[in-house]
């Protein structure tokens, strides 16, 4: 992605004659000389842009050399890991063609950008987290973190995949300014495997059969959290290699009504736990939603999420607002392809009813392509594909 600099010099424009006898001159207000902006304001403006959306800083730096010299360099690893493009996601239609520019969407504002990813030649996208892509180089098995907006790549240790189409979920601890090397956690459902490493390490640390961290890892307040199929939530402290503890230990699963799957998702600055049951609960709910109170170590039942909608898939989860995206149904949960018999369904939290929204959602069974993508795609199609995608 490139942004052209503009010439701030003012010009006077003379209008063309309206008749052969009459001419008129129109003076255009001179363009603002942005170089004359007080220098002490530039870092303050840059800080405000960073607190909202780091991508705005790229446009800010493109105005002139003075602004660029007085604002943080987004191409440095320290900047990338301290200010990741958290609310940006890469949309995929399932065709996995990285030779053409890809669409990136800000799920908070609705802003979208088309970005060329030709730098990824010879790579596959293994996972994504907080706007960053986790790549694997196909020949060397080198794992890399890639910022699609600045094209910064940071190397991680090699990881040889056991199966060609393994499904990985990723989470990353971001720097607070004192540590520029974040830890990256990868969890693989097929292998019941959890790996973690940081830039500069020579190998991945791993734990096999560690079911407590199999689903949807998130990094929250200095710890990684993930959920088990039974509905339990586990945490891992960054100061220890893999010290785990059970969140809300007093809760016991109801083995008479098995939890088929559980998910963690961030929604409006809170962490939600979603439990999908095999059969409806006494309340009639097939899905129960809880807020995780980390301060008091307890679960709080949630009956409504207002205008928000949750998108849940095997490796990723999203929360979007129907106010920002009118085509999304609020107070609902969009479920990926491996949750119910229907390929894709929408679950209404008020009526506790499931409604199929796609009859032919699965285009690949991880071994071969089953059918071509059916266009045009709706926004829910893109979001549920993002949450359910294997590899690009």
Largest sheet: 5 strands, mixed
Q: Using DSSP, what is the number of strands?
A: 24
Distance between the termini: 20 Å
Quickly count the domains.
3
Spatial extent as radius of gyration:
24 Å
Q: Structural class, please?
A: mainly beta
Q: Tell me roughly what share of residues is in helical segments.
A: 10-25%
InterPro entries: F-box-like_dom_sf, KIB1-4_b-propeller
Pfam family, one: Beta-prop_KIB1-4
Organism: Rhynchospora pubera
Protein name: F-box protein (DUF295)
What are the key terms here?
single chain, 392 residues, mainly beta, 5-stranded mixed beta sheet, 10% helix, disordered N terminus, F-box-like_dom_sf
Characterize the structure shown:
The chain has 392 residues and is mainly β. It has three domains: 1-72, no CATH class; 77-209, no CATH class; 307-392, no CATH class. Helices cover 10% and strands 33% of the residues. The protein contains five helices and 24 strands. The chain has helices at residues 41-52, 54-61, 65-69, 77-82, 379-388; strands at 88-90, 102-106, 112-115, 123-129, 132-137, 142-147, 152-158, 168-172, 184-188, 193-197, 205-208, 215-220, 223-227, 233-237, 244-247, 259-267, 270-277, 287-293, 298-302, 308-312, 317-321, 332-335, 344-348, 353-358. A five-stranded mixed sheet has the order 21-20-22-23-24, covered by helices on one side. A hairpin with a 2-residue loop joins strand 16 and strand 17 (270-277). The longest helix is centred in the N-terminal third of the chain and has 12 residues, at 41-52. The protein is globular, with a radius of gyration of 24 Å. The two termini are 20 Å apart. Residues 104-338 form the KIB1-4 beta-propeller domain.
């Amino acid at each position: 992605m490139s942004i052209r600099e503009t010439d701030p010099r003012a010009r006077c424009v003379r209008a063309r004659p309206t008749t052969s006898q009459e001419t008129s001159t129109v003076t255009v207000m001179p363009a603002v000389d942005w170089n004359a902006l007080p220098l002490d304001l530039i870092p303050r403006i840059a800080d405000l842009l960073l607190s909202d959306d780091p991508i705005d800083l790229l446009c800010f730096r493109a105005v002139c050399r003075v602004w660029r010299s007085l604002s943080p360099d987004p191409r440095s690893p320290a900047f990338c890991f301290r200010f990741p493009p958290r609310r940006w996601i890469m949309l995929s239609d399932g065709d996995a063609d990285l030779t053409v520019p890809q669409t990136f969407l800000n799920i908070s504002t609705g802003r979208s950008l088309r970005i060329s990813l030709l730098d990824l030649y010879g790579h596959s996208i293994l996972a994504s987290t907080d706007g960053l892509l986790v790549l694997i180089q196909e020949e060397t098995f080198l794992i890399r973190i890639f910022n699609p907006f600045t094209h910064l790549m940071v190397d991680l240790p090699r990881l040889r995949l056991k199966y060609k189409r393994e499904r990985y979920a990723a989470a990353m601890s971001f720097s607070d300014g004192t540590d520029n090397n974040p830890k990256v956690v990868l969890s693989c459902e097929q292998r019941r495997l959890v790996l973690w490493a940081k830039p500069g390490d020579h190998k991945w640390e791993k734990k096999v059969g560690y079911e407590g961290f199999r689903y949807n890892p998130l990094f929250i307040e200095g710890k990684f959290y993930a959920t088990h199929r039974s509905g339990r939530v586990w945490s891992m402290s960054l100061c220890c290699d893999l010290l785990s503890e059970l969140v809300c230990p007093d809760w016991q699963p109801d083995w008479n009504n098995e939890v088929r799957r559980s998910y963690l998702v961030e929604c409006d600055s809170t962490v939600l736990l979603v439990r999908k049951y095999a059969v409806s609960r006494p309340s009639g709910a097939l899905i129960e939603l809880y807020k995780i109170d980390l301060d008091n170590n307890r679960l709080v039942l949630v009956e409504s999420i207002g205008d928000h909608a949750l998108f849940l898939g095997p490796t990723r989860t999203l929360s979007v607002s129907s106010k920002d995206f009118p085509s999304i149904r609020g107070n609902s949960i969009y479920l990926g392809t491996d949750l119910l018999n229907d390929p894709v369904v929408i679950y209404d939290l008020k009526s506790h009813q499931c409604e199929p929204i796609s009859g032919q959602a699965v285009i690949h069974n991880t071994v071969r392509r089953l059918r071509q993508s059916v266009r045009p795609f709706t926004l829910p199609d893109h979001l549920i594909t993002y949450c359910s995608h294997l590899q690009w």
